[in-house]
């Protein structure tokens, strides 16, 4: 359907799949990370939140555009990236016990399922 899509036997196809996978993980990290610390000026914190949001949405749209190539490998790489990213950054698996979550930041709460 798309002439620019690398063939499935090429090195560039593997790089494309790895890129989609890593971008999906980055989207999950940005969705769950607390990057703005308490004590930050409200205006500065708002600008930082907006910049982080814009980056997250841009990366998510890039993954969406890659999936719209209708290539099964790209779809699987995106789903795997989002899943691994959620496992690492969004699930309870790697959270430290007995620590109040989000106590040291004023960032927006992570996206809820």
UniProtKB/TrEMBL annotation:
It comes from the Eukaryota. Pfam families: Ctr. The chain crosses the membrane at residues 12-30, 51-68, 74-94. It is a multi-pass membrane protein. One of its GO terms (molecular function) is copper ion transmembrane transporter activity. The keyword Transmembrane helix applies. Keywords: Copper, Copper transport, Ion transport, Membrane, Transmembrane, Transmembrane helix, Transport. GO terms for cellular component: plasma membrane. It is found in: Membrane. The keyword Lyase does not apply. InterPro entries: Cop_transporter. Belongs to the copper transporter (Ctr) (TC 1.A.56) family. SLC31A subfamily. This is Copper transport protein. It comes from Ricinus communis (Castor bean). The lineage of its organism: Eukaryota, Viridiplantae, Streptophyta, Embryophyta, Tracheophyta.
């Amino acid at each position: 359907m798309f002439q620019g899509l690398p063939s499935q036997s090429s090195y560039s196809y593997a790089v494309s799949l790895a890129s989609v996978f890593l971008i999906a993980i980055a989207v999950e990290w940005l969705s769950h990370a607390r990057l703005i610390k308490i004590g930050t000026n409200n205006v500065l914190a708002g600008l930082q939140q907006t910049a982080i949001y814009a980056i997250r949405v841009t990366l998510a749209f890039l993954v969406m555009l890659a999936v719209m190539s209708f290539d099964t490998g790209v779809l699987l790489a995106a789903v795997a990236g989002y899943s691994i990213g959620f496992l690492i950054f969004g699930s309870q698996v790697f959270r430290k016990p007995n620590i109040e979550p989000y106590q040291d930041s004023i960032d927006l709460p992570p996206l809820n399922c």
